[in-house]
């Protein structure tokens, strides 16, 4: 059975921000970090990562700079700004509220007299 899953709409930004909160990295590094952190459940392609990073740059959530990678290649590295850390905090709070509400609905569906 394939254990990979699609990222739920609206969570891509949260996952990328969280990956960047650990340390600055390049686009492929972000994708790899999310894959490793999710134990290979999420595999996010570059076609999703780079448009999100462009949005983040426009919103002031990241800064970027060119640097040599561990494989001796030049890559653009992305780093969270204070605004990006604040956005991550807001996204985490929103996610926890959402999943808490889903848990309430799932639990309520098992109880006979909920209206």
Describe this structure in words.
There is one protein chain. The protein is α+β, with helices and mostly antiparallel strands. The protein contains 4 helices and 3 strands, in the order αβααββα. A 3-stranded antiparallel β-sheet has the order 1-3-2. Helix 2 packs across helix 3. The longest helix has 28 residues, at 82-109. The termini are far apart. The mean pLDDT is 92.
Strand content: 5-15%
Task: Summarize the amount of helix as a percent range.
Answer: 55-70%
- What's the total number of strands? 3
Rg, Cα atoms, Å: 17 Å
Poorly predicted parts: none
Provide the succession of SSEs: HEHHEEH
What attributes does this structure have?
115 residues; 3-stranded antiparallel sheet; alpha+beta; 56% helix
What order do the helices and strands come in, and which of them pair?
Blueprint: H1 12-22, E1 25-26, H2 27-37, H3 46-59, E2 62-68, E3 74-80, H4 82-109
Antiparallel strand pairs: 1-3, 2-3
Helix pairs in contact: 1-2, 1-4, 2-3
Quick summary of this structure?
This protein is of the alpha+beta class. The chain has helices at residues 12-22, 27-37, 46-59, 82-109, and strands at residues 25-26, 62-68, 74-80. Helix content is 56%, strand content 14%.
């Amino acid at each position: 059975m394939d254990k990979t899953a699609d990222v739920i709409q609206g969570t891509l930004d949260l996952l990328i921000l969280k990956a960047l909160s650990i340390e600055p990295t390049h686009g492929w590094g972000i994708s790899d970090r999310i894959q490793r952190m999710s134990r290979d459940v999420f595999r996010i392609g570059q076609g999703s990562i780079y448009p999100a990073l462009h949005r983040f740059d426009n919103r002031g959530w990241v800064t970027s700079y060119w640097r040599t990678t561990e494989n001796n290649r030049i890559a653009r590295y992305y780093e969270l700004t204070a605004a990006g850390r604040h956005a991550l905090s807001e996204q985490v709070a929103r996610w926890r509220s959402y999943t808490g509400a889903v848990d309430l609905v799932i639990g309520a569906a098992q109880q006979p007299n909920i209206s």
